[in-house]
């Protein structure tokens, strides 16, 4: 058992571990939600709902990340590069970005 009573008491290494656990929990919920719709309504309807949900979620996530990082309205590719590292699944999916001229890979 841990001696911590709240998130505010956690040291940095435990906060990072918690972020990873939250990402795993979110990913599991996303998959279970999809499977539930697929089971009741079929694959086509599940995919349709998934596309709609992700379209709305990415807008919300992007807005919150921009606010968190203090990015300007038109942050460009450099802003996008920074923001991608703060996506909800970032602790699970390590990635590398390369900015070359007008191309972000």
Counted up, domains total: 1
Structure annotation, total helices: 3
Portion of residues within helices: 55-70%
Low-pLDDT residue intervals, each spanning 5 or more residues: none
Biggest sheet overview: 2 strands, antiparallel
Q: What is the distance, rounded to the nearest whole angstrom, between the alpha carbons of the first and last residues?
A: 43 Å
Question: Beta fraction of the residues?
Answer: under 5%
Total strand segments: 2
Structure description:
The structure is a single chain. α1 (12-41) runs antiparallel to α2 (43-69). The model has no long low-confidence stretch (mean pLDDT 94). This protein has one domain. The chain starts with 11 loop residues before the first helix and ends with a strand. It has helices at residues 12-41, 43-69, 76-84; strands at residues 99-100, 103-104. The radius of gyration is 17 Å and the shape is flat. A two-stranded antiparallel ribbon has the order 1-2. The protein is mainly α and 105 residues long. The chain is built from three helices and two strands; from the N terminus they run αααββ. β1 (99-100) and β2 form a beta hairpin. The longest helix has 30 residues, at 12-41. The chain is 63% helix and 4% strand.
